[in-house]
Amino acid sequence: MSTPPTSKLAPMSVQQIRLFGDPVLRQRAKEVTDFDKEVRRLVQDLEDTMLSASGAGLAAPQIGVGLRVFTWHVDGEIGHLINPTLALGEEIQDGPEGCLSLPELRYDCKRALTVVAQGFNAYGEPITVNGSELLARAIQHETDHLDGVLFIDRLDEESRKAAMREIRTSEWFAAEKPVVRLSPHVTGGFGR
Fold first, then answer.
1. Less packed terminus of the chain by CB within 10 Å, N or C?
2. What is the pTM of this model?
3. Taking the CA atoms of the chain, what radius of gyration do you get in angstroms?
4. Which of 38, 104, 142, 166 is catalytic?
């Protein structure tokens, strides 16, 4: 599936990818209700950013936008889905998975081998995507992002602990710790 042309919109840009620890990655994204030029611009920004980072997928929360939109780039195909719902196949695949919000981290993760994803394109037209293997993995991974779930949440306990150790010792995690701001208002005993 290819994305409809967006030549009438302002130039698109590569956005900064939010890293593990950023609160936006743990929040459920909101449904898209207006399929306007801003949504089409978001889709293009996601595609540009994903391709620039050589990713197989990218969800809007990963660039700080709390909307239910994601893109994918699998086997030379670029696509996007808005407000997805998934029907997972019963057969399971187990293989390496990574995430642009967790740089250089790759662990085996179980996912459904096939998926039927329904949602909308950037113009509000209903679409259905049938995916298997890597495309199914990418669709499930990106839909998880829309629900505030990261792939490390799906790892077995031993792998998750190993992943967390790797994250804590990574250069990017030390450099990108979220800033905690204290309220200047009286908080009634909640915080400082």
1. C
2. 0.84
3. 17
4. 142
**133 is known as an active-site residue:** no
Ordered by where they begin, the domains of the chain are 23-175 (3.90.45.10)
Cβ within 8 Å of residue 117, ≥6 positions away: 81, 84, 85, 86, 87, 128, 129, 130, 131, 139, 143
| Residue numbers belonging to the annotated binding site for Fe cation | 99, 141, 145
Q: Which of 13, 3, 47 is nearest to 142 (CA)?
A: 47
> Is the pLDDT reported for residue 162 higher than 70?
yes
Gap between the Cα atoms of 187 and 158, Å rounded: 39
Residue 163 confidence (pLDDT) above 80 = yes
Amino acid identity of residue 23, one-letter, is P
Q: Is the pLDDT of residue 6 over 50?
A: no
Sequence-distant (6+) residues with CB within 8 A of 95 are 108, 109, 137
Strand order through the sheet with 114-120: 57-59, 69-74, 77-88, 114-120, 126-132
Binding residue ranges? 99, 141, 145
